[in-house]
């Protein structure tokens, strides 16, 4: 049975230590290297798609979350406030939206700036009960790939469709295979803000954006402030969870009194689109570790190439090539310890995509013989060709080990 917790331990991707606290995993160097590559990819995809990145703190004053409605509608999922003094209480944020609303209203806004896409890979906290926590799939400290796109009402349809396209692009690069689309709607009860007309309008816009897409409607699964499109995945144990999401919100712009100057000079309220292309780093990696069985595509493999000098005579040649590969941006290691066979097996056990064997003949010729983690091997190649091969695989986010 594939389990990301077991693979995470074997491949030294992350560790959960009871002393740190349940649901508060620590990313080890190998896991952090893979996550860093994924974060850089997502940030670059967003940058090329017109997003502007910000940083905001993972906690804020109690009043901020009273204004946002989180303390009214979401308090059960939040850690209790921290009191510095009688009139100074702080809250670990359960979402980034309130800070991004403050980014929008940091100065006057014009219709010319819309859609204004504010993005951040930011920390947030949920007081999950200890019984539901496990590995990276349910955690209390969450690093969310988040953005809030402030739009005029007539821009919402195109904006949501473009977000769905970006989600598809990111999924293809990462190897995410969605199990389906879900339109999450309001259910019965008092846990939702906003009036019926707002909810109906938002639902209509999302249904229009899903034109031609197979989806299921899920009453009761909406956010407390609006309906959403969720893109579902299924883990190795058959459990369904949401990775990517697009949500419409008419409520927060009202609560934060957000407005922009329209072309005719009038003040208009923007619509807030909450979206995540790949979800939280924790849940994403819980999924990716399982779906790839730890063998990540080359572009986000923790170590991409391990160099194996056959004996001490090639140590210098191996170090020189490792230096060139590092300078070219690769994650590379040199392994001297033990027999060649044991080192090849160890590289493949660690799911390193390529082991580069350097014997006397290769060292003399400035060449490397590559062994792939799937068992294939290539005839010796000049070092420059090896670097060009990696360049191609990384630049195209290829899932295959050979172009
Ligand atoms: Zn949000």
UniProtKB/TrEMBL annotation:
Residue ranges of domain Aminoacyl-transfer RNA synthetases class-II family profile in the record: 29-297
Keyword annotations: Aminoacyl-tRNA synthetase, ATP-binding, Cytoplasm, Ligase, Metal-binding, Nucleotide-binding, Protein biosynthesis, Zinc
GO BP annotations, alphabetical order: threonyl-tRNA aminoacylation
EC code(s) of this entry: 6.1.1.3
Reaction catalysis annotation: tRNA(Thr) + L-threonine + ATP = L-threonyl-tRNA(Thr) + AMP + diphosphate + H(+)
One Gene Ontology CC term in the entry: cytoplasm
Record keyword Protein biosynthesis present: yes
Alphabetical list of PROSITE patterns matching this protein: AA_TRNA_LIGASE_II
GO molecular function: ATP binding; metal ion binding; threonine-tRNA ligase activity
Family the UniProt entry places it in: Belongs to the class-II aminoacyl-tRNA synthetase family.
UniProt-recorded name of the protein: Threonine--tRNA ligase
Organism name: Micromonospora mirobrigensis
């Amino acid at each position: 049975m594939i389990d990301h917790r077991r693979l995470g331990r074997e491949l030294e991707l992350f560790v959960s230590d009871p002393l740190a606290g349940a649901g508060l995993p620590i990313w080890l160097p190998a896991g952090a290297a893979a996550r860093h590559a994924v974060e850089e990819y997502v940030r670059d995809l967003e940058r090329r798609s017109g997003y502007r990145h910000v940083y905001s703190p993972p906690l804020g004053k109690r009043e901020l979350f009273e204004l946002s409605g989180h303390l009214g509608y979401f308090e059960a999922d939040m850690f209790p406030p921290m009191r510095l003094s009688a009139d100074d209480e702080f809250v670990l944020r359960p979402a980034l939206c309130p800070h991004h609303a403050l980014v929008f209203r940091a100065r006057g806004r014009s219709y010319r700036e819309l859609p204004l896409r504010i993005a951040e890979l930011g920390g947030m906290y949920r007081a999950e009960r200890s019984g539901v926590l496990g590995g990276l799939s349910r955690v209390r400290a969450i690093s969310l790939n988040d953005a809030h796109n402030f739009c005029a009402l007539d821009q919402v349809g195109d904006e949501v469709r473009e977000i769905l396209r970006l989600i598809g692009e990111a999924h293809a690069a990462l190897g995410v295979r969605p199990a389906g689309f879900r339109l999450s709607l309001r259910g019965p009860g008092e846990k939702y803000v906003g009036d019926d007309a707002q909810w109906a309008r938002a639902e209509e816009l999302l249904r229009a954006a899903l034109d031609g897409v197979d989806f299921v409607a899920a009453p009761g699964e909406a956010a407390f402030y609006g309906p959403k499109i969720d893109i579902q995945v299924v883990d190795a144990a058959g459990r369904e969870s949401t990775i990517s999401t697009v949500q419409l919100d008419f409520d927060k712009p009202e609560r934060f009194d957000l407005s922009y100057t329209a072309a005719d000079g009038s003040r208009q309220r923007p619509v807030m689109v909450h979206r995540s292309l790949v979800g939280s780093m924790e849940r994403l990696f819980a999924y990716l570790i399982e779906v790839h069985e730890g063998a990540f595509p080359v572009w986000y493999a923790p170590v991409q190439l391990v160099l194996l000098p056959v004996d001490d005579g090639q140590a210098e040649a191996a170090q020189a090539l490792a230096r060139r590969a590092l300078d070219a941006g690769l994650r590379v290691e040199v392994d001297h310890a033990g027999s060649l066979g044991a080192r090849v097996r160890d590289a493949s056990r660690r799911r390193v995509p390529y082991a580069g064997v350097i014997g006397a003949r290769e060292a003399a010729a400035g060449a490397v013989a590559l062994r792939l983690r799937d068992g294939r091997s290539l005839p010796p190649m000049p070092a420059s060709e090896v670097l060009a091969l990696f360049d191609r695989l990384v630049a195209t986010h290829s899932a295959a080990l050979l172009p």
